[in-house]
Amino acid sequence: MTELTGIDPKGRFHPSLQWEPAAGAVAVGDLFDGQAFSRPLESLTDIATRKREALEVGRKASEQAGITYNGIRYAGDPSNRQALMEALDLADTTGQTTFASWKDSDGLFHADHPVADVRQALLDIATRRGQLIVHEGELNAQIDTALVAEDRTALEAVEWSEA
Q1: 32 DSSP β-pair partners
Q2: pLDDT for 153 beyond 90
């Protein structure tokens, strides 16, 4: 399908063009075999690109969830990691061992929150992030293998899930 029109094309185009009636679900780019329209198969490269993008989105969502340390959730997104580092820098500079008030990633406040807990949470976030990146790499390797084998089914089967 190269063009769609809602107006009868008879007499409006070169007579060598073949027009076929189509249902509303037909789109430009669809194929016609003489009897029915169908969607063209997505190329393996396009599937791989779509899958890689979905893997990255999945990893980042898993990172965002963060970790829970001593019953307090610490989000793992870049802005929260930066905020944790800034708070730890301040504590190091001023010699603090506790934060008078700490607001966690769920919006809850904690009095006299230990700096050591924040430090450990940041380390745990970094460890988890590293594990998630390794997992994303493993899934990307599955995509590479499926591409080399030209295995559409294996390629479509690659999905983000936490290992």
Answers
A1: 37
A2: yes
